Structures are given as C-alpha cells and as structure tokens.
Amino acid sequence: MRRGYIALLACVLLLLASCEHKELCFDHDMHAFKSEVRVEAQYEREWQYTYAGGTDWKTFPTWQEEFGRTYDALRPALPEGLRVQIYNTDAATNIVNIAPEGGIVYIRPGEHALLFYNNDTEYIVFDAMDSFASAKATTRTRTRASYLGNSYMDPEMKENTVSEPDMLYGNYRVSYFAERVPEIRVMPVAMHPLVFTYLVRYEFERGQEYVALARGALAGMARSVWLNSGHTSKEAATVLYDCAVEKFGVEALVETFGVPDFPNDHYNTRAQRYGLNLEVRLKNGKIKSFDFDVTDQVIAQPQGGVIVVRGIEITEEEGSSGGSGFDVDVESWGDYEDIDLPI
Fold first, then answer.
1. What is the 3-state composition of the chain as percent helix, strand, coil, each rounded to the nearest 5?
2. How far apart are CA 84 and CA 206, in angstroms?
C-alpha cells in the first residue's frame, strides 16, 4: 500500500511539473516578441529646389559651358552616419546612432516622437534637443574684422555673422506607437536636405588679374532650422565664406539653411532684403569691397540656386599702384574668427 501511494504521488508531481514547464515556455515565447524597427533610409541629394519665378536649373542646357561643371556635380554626398532621437511620453530621450543607410533600433513599447538627422556634421550646432518641439539646428558665430555690414541692408536690422552650415539631412515623425510583435517592423525614412547651396558668381568687367584673394558675405539668410518641420527660423544672419579666384572673376559655393521663416504662405509679401558682399585683396596688398542687392534673385530662389553679379571693375591705378605686395601662397587674410556663443 505504502509503495502504491508513493508511486501515485510521484506521478502527480510529475504532471504538475510538466504543466508548470508548459506555462513557463508560454511566457518565454511572449517575451521573445521585440519592440524593434529596422530603419531603412533613402537620401534626397538635392542642393536646391526650384520655385515659381526661379530658373529650373536642372534643365538649364549649358551648365558645362556657363559654369564649368554639371548640375549633378553640386549634389551633396551621402552622410557617414544617421542619428535617431527618440522622445518618450515621460520626457526622457534616447539617442541611437546607426549606419547612414539605416539599421535596427530598439524603441520601448508606447508612443514616441522621432527625429532623424545625420550625425557627421562639423559646423552645425544642435540646440534645445531635449524637446521635440524646440529642437533646431544652427551654426557658429563667425566674425570678420573688415566686414561692417552691407550698404543695401536695413542698418537697424543688426544681423549676426555666422559660418556656413555643413550638409544636413533630416526627417521626423510626430507620433509613432511601438509595441511588441513577433517580427521586426520596417520603417522607411526619406531623408530630405535642410541645407542648400548657392553657386555665387562675381563676374568682372575688368581688373580681375589684380585680385589675389577674395571672400564674401550673403546677408539675410535664415539663422536656424527646426528639425521637427524643416521650417526656418524668423531670425536672419549673414553667412561669411571664402571664395576662389577664377578667370572670369570670383566664385563661391555657399551653404545656408535658405531664407528666414520659410515655408510661409505669406512669404512673397515680406519685406526681407538680401545683400551680397565681395571683399578682394589685390596683389599690391590693397583691399577693396563691393556690395550688391540680390533681393530679386534670392526671393526667386529661397532654397539654393545660382546668384550672379556682373560689371565689377578694378582700375589699373588701383591694381598696380601703391602697396608693397605679398606672397599669395603664404599670406592669408588672418582675421576670421569662429566664436561659440550660447544660443
């Protein structure tokens, strides 16, 4: 009898253990579900957008003859890395860096807002990134001792002078709900340009042969761009840049966030002006400065394009007389200064 009870008890314990084991396996299967997404990024490599009233530069027939390059040669390169910034409902944020083409990103279950932008920038300054609503990209303040403003701009509208931003791509999702599912979800992300290029050409009527060094300034451009919308800030800034001396005069590729407060349904009614400056150092050591009003050209090209000014002259007297000269290969301007300031 006693042996029979022991055998019966052993059978009961075995059945209970078996049931418990099945329950544990069920729980394990549920925890195997993951809250992950596979980000698949595609990049829109545009250096400018065409708007009504502006030239469609993509179809401009004589790029090589007019500008010495093709339209496609100005397209920005792909970035070296992609950053995903995750905003949680509890105000916490997570940052994940992945390959430029994408990768696996863990997002804890629940609702989130997401920002996507390349993480290989040098001159971009990211500000107020602790909040999805306030996150924006700007650039460093840069000073040039000889630049005193543009005579065509409103003297009461004092603009900060800044460095060019380097290439920035971005996208966003206002709301994404993550949940545990048996398979990793795919999230396609189209990365759009937030920085645009102006091909700036200063064409000389005469005297180009006297120019040794050149640099410029484009006034009235946007100071920053909101990462949650691609809308530029209302604050304007003057972008300082270096130029290359060419046979026709001077040329520069200038990167900016575009015009201020754009997109804007009332943009064409705004009284914003845009000014261009050229400062040249002649081979005899003299410095000469020129200002231009390029409002019409920039209004027609709010996000990149081609800006051309013509008729620039340096007289033989200015270019050949006076000064002690200098070695162009070793002597530089020497008065650019980048300054990091609190935003």
1. 15, 45, 40
2. 52
- Read off φ and ψ for residue 122, nearest 5 degrees: -110, -40
Confidence of residue 246 (pLDDT cuts 50, 70, 90): very high
> What's the pLDDT score for residue 74?
98
Tell me the pLDDT band of 340, cut-offs 50, 70 and 90. Answer: low
Distance from C-alpha of 117 to C-alpha of 127, rounded to nearest angstrom: 13
For residue 197, give both structure tokens.
């290029």
For strands 275-282 and 211-222, give the pairing.
antiparallel
Cα 106 from chain centre: 26
Spatial strand order in the sheet of 110-118: 93-98, 82-88, 110-118, 169-178, 185-193, 36-43, 102-106
Q: pTM here?
A: 0.85
Q: Are 238 and 217 in contact (CB under 8 A)?
A: yes
Residue that has been written with the tokens 């048996």 in this structure: 182
Segment 186-213 mean pLDDT? 97
Angstrom distances, CA of residue 322 to CA of 209, 210, 283, 332: 16, 13, 10, 19
**Single-letter amino acid, residue 166:** D
CA 261 to chain CA centroid, nearest Å: 16
Helix, strand, or coil here: 17? helix
Q: What angle do CA 91, 94, 100 make, to 5 degrees?
A: 140
Distances (CA, A) of 122 to 109, 163, 194: 34, 11, 15
**Helices within the chain (DSSP H only):** 2-32, 63-67, 295-299, 316-320
Q: Range with the lowest mean pLDDT among 74-78, 124-128, 180-184, 291-295?
A: 180-184
Residue whose structure tokens are 């800006």: 307
| Torsion angle of C-alpha atoms 309, 203, 217, 169, degrees rounded to 10 | 90
| DSSP assigned state of 303 | T
Report the distance separating Cα 222 and Cα 262, nearest Å.
9
Q: What is the DSSP letter of 283?
A: T
pLDDT-derived band of residue 53, with 50, 70 and 90 as boundaries? confident
Between residues 21 and 83, which one has the greater pLDDT? 83
